[in-house]
């Protein structure tokens, strides 16, 4: 009988110990879970406040401070700031580059065909001056027998250097139009007038000279060339030993038909500087 009571007491003690241990584990789990949750919430609030703090710029105004450099919040915000700046700069550079390429492709006809990403117009030409070994043409004071004013410029380059031909032909100094449409035409001629010390006669210094540039269109159905544009300026003969440098530039749009020809004439071909970067003309289809 005594043995039975002892076994029952031992069982009750063991059961009580297991129950107490279970309760202790449960209480410990709940306590640590609550502490962990509190720490997580505190860390989240700290992280968010670090990013959205309105006084962040003033608090970390001095980046050289060692205390601020060691602050995790300062490090995170600085890295995020640099990352955002880099992304914005890359996006801005990409958009600007695309916009500039489109602008250049539509507005500058003198772009080299080798430039990547900048398509040329479907019909375009840019021809540049070529230094000729031949004697310059004689001056013409009035309209020539061929129906145009000035002296024709035939020495143009269409294949090398800055020049190019895109679905257009260059024949004897004339640009041949391949298709009908609205064309943008431009030309520049560069003149080098000798100084009075290099030429005879002092009358030139007083009289001066007139520089004129003409752009003509020649049609197969009309025998006389048609004057499209004209540009002129009065220039005095330079004094001293240095020559006088002058340029004439003009541009405009006109409707052209297939087989029309464009050419340039000037009033003083003997003084024209045929450098390809100074004297040139061209046209391209705009619509």
Automatic annotation (TrEMBL):
GO terms for molecular function: cytokine activity; metal ion binding; tumor necrosis factor receptor binding. It comes from the Eukaryota. Zn(2+) binds at residue 236. It is a single-pass type II membrane protein. CDD domains: TNF. GO terms for biological process: apoptotic process; immune response; positive regulation of extrinsic apoptotic signaling pathway. Residues 123-286 form the THD domain. GO terms for cellular component: extracellular space; plasma membrane. It holds the Pfam family TNF. Keywords: Apoptosis, Cell membrane, Cytokine, Membrane, Metal-binding, Phosphoprotein, Secreted, Signal-anchor, Transmembrane, Transmembrane helix, Zinc. Its main location: membrane. SUPFAM superfamilies: TNF-like. It is found in: Cell membrane; Secreted. Cytokine that binds to TNFRSF10A/TRAILR1, TNFRSF10B/TRAILR2, TNFRSF10C/TRAILR3, TNFRSF10D/TRAILR4 and possibly also to TNFRSF11B/OPG. Induces apoptosis. Its activity may be modulated by binding to the decoy receptors TNFRSF10C/TRAILR3, TNFRSF10D/TRAILR4 and TNFRSF11B/OPG that cannot induce apoptosis. Homotrimer. One TNFSF10 homotrimer interacts with three TNFSF10A mononers. One TNFSF10 homotrimer interacts with three TNFSF10B mononers. Belongs to the tumor necrosis factor family. This is Tumor necrosis factor ligand superfamily member 10.
